[in-house]
Design brief:
268 residues, alpha+beta, four-stranded antiparallel sheet, 5 helices
């Protein structure tokens, strides 16, 4: 459970005096206590959280509806619409790329490689998400077989990168760094909020290329969403979202895609 530091700090604010030497000992002790409480609360704000990174592949971007006339045609609307309808017209694949634990200042560098799939038939582990697995996102997209990076006929795969916050590290940090929903997640009865916190999409490309774009918040949790009366976004979900300006570099070389993301995790 997360505790609002805003509420705590509004109660335990500093007490100041024009001349501390004239203040009563009781007030001086109260001032020290309140000041120490504020320092303690501030120290509890940490950014060294567990984060995973995911390949989100749209193997048939011609079926995307988020931005059909743009260079990047696909997005979260295509994921949620298809998941809700039990369809997968854009041939979406969500699979594990990497994971890490941010430094205390919030910096985290993640790197991963992906290889084109000739068979279009990958086993990504336990379909029910109990034993180890490497698929992610809505469960309808993984039926026990995944296309992987396998462009539809006449198309090129549109590659997106999504990061997911798994909260402070636990004794199950191996699972935190390798699963979409690990045992520490509230969805599994654990203490941590696990939520997507950043995303970036690249246009469908076939040539050898190096392209850098900048990742910010996950599309479902824009700044201010917690105050929006028609949004389901909570203050805790908004608090862990990435700010703008996190560079993500995609390198395409033949049948290989590599990605390097350098991101700053917020202190919460």
């Amino acid at each position: 459970m997360k505790i609002s530091t805003t509420a705590i700090l509004s109660i335990f604010s500093f007490v100041t005096f024009s001349d501390p030497s004239n203040a009563s000992q009781e007030h001086q002790e109260l001032n020290v206590h309140r000041g120490a409480t504020r320092v303690l609360v501030e120290k509890r704000k940490k950014a060294n959280r567990a984060v995973t990174m995911w390949w989100v592949l749209f193997n048939k971007p011609s079926e995307c509806m988020t931005n059909p006339d743009g260079d990047v045609k696909c997005g979260i609307d295509d994921v949620m619409t298809n998941a809700g309808a039990g369809t997968n017209n854009p041939e979406i694949v969500i699979m594990n790329a990497s994971g890490g634990i941010a430094r205390k200042d919030g910096f985290l560098r993640l790197a991963a490689a992906l290889y084109r799939t000739d068979s279009c038939d990958l086993d990504l582990g336990d379909r029910d998400g109990i034993d180890q697995y490497t698929w992610g996102g809505p469960s309808p997209f993984y039926t026990g077989s995944s296309k992987g990076w396998c462009p539809a006929d006449g198309e090129m795969t549109e590659i997106h990168i999504v990061t997911r916050d798994h909260g402070r590290k636990t004794d199950d940090k191996l699972l935190q760094l390798t699963r979409f929903t690990d045992p520490s997640c509230s969805q599994r009865g654990g203490p941590n909020l696990c939520v997507d916190n950043g995303s970036v999409g690249f246009p469908a490309l076939s040539d050898t290329i190096v392209m850098t774009k900048y990742m910010s918040h996950f599309a479902a949790f824009p700044p201010g969403c917690a105050d929006d009366p028609v949004s389901d976004c909570t203050a805790d979900q908004e608090a862990v979202q990435l700010s703008a300006g996190n560079p993500v570099t995609l390198i395409l070389t033949g049948d290989t895609a590599q990605v390097v993301a350098e991101i700053m995790i917020p202190k919460v």
